[in-house]
## 1
Amino acid sequence: MRIKLITTKQCTYSKKPNKQNLGGGREVGRLSVFVRPGNSDKGVLLDCGINFDDQGNPQLPLYVSPKNIKAAVLTHAHLDHTGGLPLYLPLYFVTLSFPVLSTSITKAILRPLMNDFLHISGYYLPFEYEEVAKMLRNIKTVNYGDIVEVDNFTLEFVNAGHIPGSMSVILHANSKSMLFTGDINLIETELTIPARYHNSSNVDYLVMETTYAITDHPPRESEEKRFIEAVREVIDNNGTVLIPAFSVSRSQEILIVLTKYGVDAPIFYDGMVREINRIFLAHSRFLKNPSMLRRALRISHEIKGWQDRKAVLKERPAVIVASSGMLRGGPSIYYLKKIYDDPRNAIFLVSFQAPNTPGRMILEKGVFEQGGPRIKARVEWFDFSSHAGKTQLIKVIDCLKSSLEKIILVHGESEAQETFAREVYGKFGIETIISSNNAKIEL
Ligand SMILES: [Zn+2]
Ligand SMILES: [Zn+2]
């Protein structure tokens, strides 16, 4: 049996002329993989993500012919796995020609995420709100443990532990099987139950994310304690702690951590996190412990508008959790500009900071814009990553090694992947391929 795996071609789409350039490859995010059994042209599309370039403009995955797609799977709601799917819906199409499979919470989160994406990047995108609405209508929800037949494939969905509702997919075709991890996490967080893979699944091919292929994260509990200690130091000094955080998952986790340790200051939250909180509670069976989130939201205060925003800044001490996590937009920017100048305050970053974002600039240069004023507030970064670290990735391979024939690495930085691939081959003797964009891999 042969499964052809095609990392979809990638390029930058833009409404501006002369901005179309092919390329990318070996990158974190913008994941989109097309899998076909044997010689068939028809197959399953796994994720369809976007990335942002250094200027913050969206980079979309290239298109495979929709007539060859029998179904698409969205492993989770993050835009680097979903943001490109409306590409398959030209304006005159009433609906997608294939079903899209995701969990119900992923579908619900996608609505605000995609609308926000259009709001910020709409000028550069070849689709509008209408296409996004059509795409969302075409999603058929699945649950962990479900088995779905699509053309020549049988698809099986399992928890990926990355964010609520995230899943990995096991594809079976012609008596072979492939595990597509999507983004995974193998440690318990306040919101998610870790991913668990079983060697009984007899996986022949593993397509694995490698966001952290050469680094490990600190133990979660010690990082939580370090974070809480830092928050308390600022509070004791009567300062304001601003915590810019991703609205999906990271904000809720931080609110739960603040509640769990009983931080002695009023806690506020602002931005898209408000809507995501409501979605999380409406789909609470995807949360590890929904009562913890309910408790955190009861104790903390929702910022409802500009009146509240101004009032919060007069509170001292205070803790504000606000979107967006990299300070690229949303109310976190507003708060930052109000508090950066006072050394009693703090900006605690708890999410990944992409190059050229204000968040990264704050960490590396102590300013939030080129030539801008120096930040006098205390700045620190805490590792609350929802991705598996290197040791966990190795653990996945170790668990599946008895049946594994090939490993394909995706969603990672090139150099780190090379090091990881060498180590995996040395340790397990299993052929390990680093997939480039537009690569066709015969298995
Ligand atoms: Zn991702
Ligand atoms: Zn993700």
## 2
Amino acid sequence: MKLAISGKGGVGKTLIAGTLSRLFARDNFKVLAIDNDSAMNLSYTLGIDDSTKAKIVPISEMKEMINERTSVSGAESGVYNINPEVSDIPDRFKVEGPDGLQLLVLGGIEEPLSGCLCPENALIRKLLYNLLVKRDEVVVVDFEAGLEHLGRGTAKGIDVMIVVTEPSQKSLDLCHKIIELSKKLGVLNIFLVANKVINDKQIEKINERVREWQVPLYHSLPYDTEIGNADLNGISPIDYNPQSDGMKSLKVLYLKLKALKKELFDL
Ligand SMILES: Nc1ncnc2c1ncn2[C@@H]1O[C@H](COP(=O)(O)OP(=O)(O)OP(=O)(O)O)[C@@H](O)[C@H]1O
Ligand SMILES: [Mg+2]
């Protein structure tokens, strides 16, 4: 199953991507977590140990490898291969984390102009396609907010798009755009998840707003000070306090997704 997590900056994408990865791995699924956010902090939420973390080089910064893969022999500068060979990259550069899970850090790309198709972008795009369409693990992608690298082919590989919102209209605005884009690109299961929810009134408001969207609220996660405390102590939230309200609710979300996985794949 390929899961992608998206939403506005700071809503809790990395928390959800990292914790779900841990829960799948703990349940003996083979898991590959993908960090596609320029802040690259999924390794913290996953609880990757410091010495491994120090060794990680994001793929987007492997200039030599990118040049080698995208160069076209004999071509003038500015001409490059937009369909580079990438199938060996995940297994070469992934690192091992707790519960046997694996992490691949793609990193972010600074785009000089919107729509730039520089070699780094071409490689990351192809890599995402490869990860979402060609692999057979549980793949969890912590996406960057704008879904820049999501093309139609790649989107079709996504079995579940989790769109995360905070209880705020601004955050819901972006969710609406992401949901529409995901639908257009052919993603079949799009789930809205509210995070940092303080009371039922907020859930009511969210439900009011999404009534017309055909994507109802799938799950809501409470605001949980233990998640902030974990962050402050540099410890993965699931290791810091697995019994906190937020972690308990994430386990419920995990069980829903596991049931869906069974429905979709175990014929
Ligand atoms: N349910 C929650 N309760 C309390 N704090 C939370 C909760 N979820 C996330 N946080 C805190 O909110 C902050 C943002 O969370 P996170 O990094 O997961 O969001 P993000 O969407 O990945 O952000 P970015 O767009 O910057 O990558 C973190 O400090 C995290 O500890
Ligand atoms: Mg993040």
